Amino acid sequence: MSENKDFLRSIVEEDLKSGKFNKITTRFPPEPNGFPHIGHAKSICINFGIAEDYKGHCNLRMDDTNPTTEDTKYVEALKDAVQWLGFNWEGNVRFTSDYFDQIHDYAIALIKMGKAYVDSTNEEEMREFRGTVTQAGKRSPFAERSIEENLELFEKMKKGEFKDGEHVLRAKIDMSAANMKMRDPLLYRIRHAHHFRAGNKWSIYPMYDFAHCLSDYIEGVSHSICTLEFENNRDIYNWVLDTLKLTPPRPYQHEFARLGINYTVMSKRKLLELVEGGQVSGWDDPRLPTIAGYKRRGYTAESIITFCEQIGIAKANSMVDVAQLEFCIRDDLNTKVPRVMCVLEPLKVTIVNYEGKEELDASYYPEDVPKEGSRKLPFSKEIYIERDDFIETPPKGYFRLTPEQPVRLKHAYIITCKEVIKDTEGKIIEIKAEYNLASKSGSDSSGIKVKSAIHWVEAKTAKEVEVRLYDRLFKEEAPEGIEDVNPDSLKVIKKALIEPAVINEKPDERFQFERQGYFYADPIDYTDETPVFNKTVGLKDSWGKKKKIPTQSAPKLKKEQIDGEVVAMSESEQALFDQYISLSISYEIANTLARDEKLSHFYKEAYDDFKVQMGDIQAPTSLANIVANEIARELKEKNELKCTPKQVSELAKMIDDKTISNKIAKQVFEEMLKSGDNPAQIVKAKGLIQISDPSEISPIIDEIIAKNPENVEKFKAGNTKLLGFFVGQVLKATGGKANPQVVNKLVAEKLK
RNA sequence: UGGGGUAUCGCCAAGCGGUAAGGCACUAGUUUUUGGUACUGGUAUUCGGGGGUUCGAAUCCCUCUACCCCAUCCA
Question: Considering A8, A486, A523, A629, which has the largest number of Cβ atoms within 10 A of its Cβ?
Answer without folding.
Answer: A8
